Amino acid sequence: MNLTEHFTLAEFTDSQTALRKGISNMPSEMAIANLHRVAEVLEQIRALFGKPLVISSGYRSPALNSAVGGASSSAHLTGLAADFTVPGMTPRETARAIAKSNIKFDQMIVEFGAWVHIGLSQGPLRQEILTAKRGDSGATVYTKGIE
Description:
The protein is an alpha+beta fold. The chain is built from five helices and six strands; from the N terminus they run H-H-H-E-H-E-H-E-E-E-E. It has a single domain, classed as 2-Layer Sandwich (Muramoyl-pentapeptide Carboxypeptidase, domain 2), CATH 3.30.1380.10.
């Protein structure tokens, strides 16, 4: 099922962890509607860079979110987030270009220098930009901006 011209539902639901652990990762109709919104934002990002994006995580069922150590309040649970990379670009370069564009989002996080998280919300979009790193204790630490 296509969500937009360049993105399919499978891209947002396929998970090696779910497959390996036998976890269902089928979204509800509401989550699919949210994934349409996220895919539309990713279309804008794809157009900004003029190349395809690689989605590493989209929708996560509660069981899958738990299995991957996701936050209990994660926007992935409602289909309002995606993690991705742009081939040939670092996540920091990607995030900086998105931040300078007119693309609207609720939250963008450069996660561990490995990928970009883009999240939407049901309410007003905050344009919040964060960087996630592992702290000394191993817990995730968030700082404002792109580091």
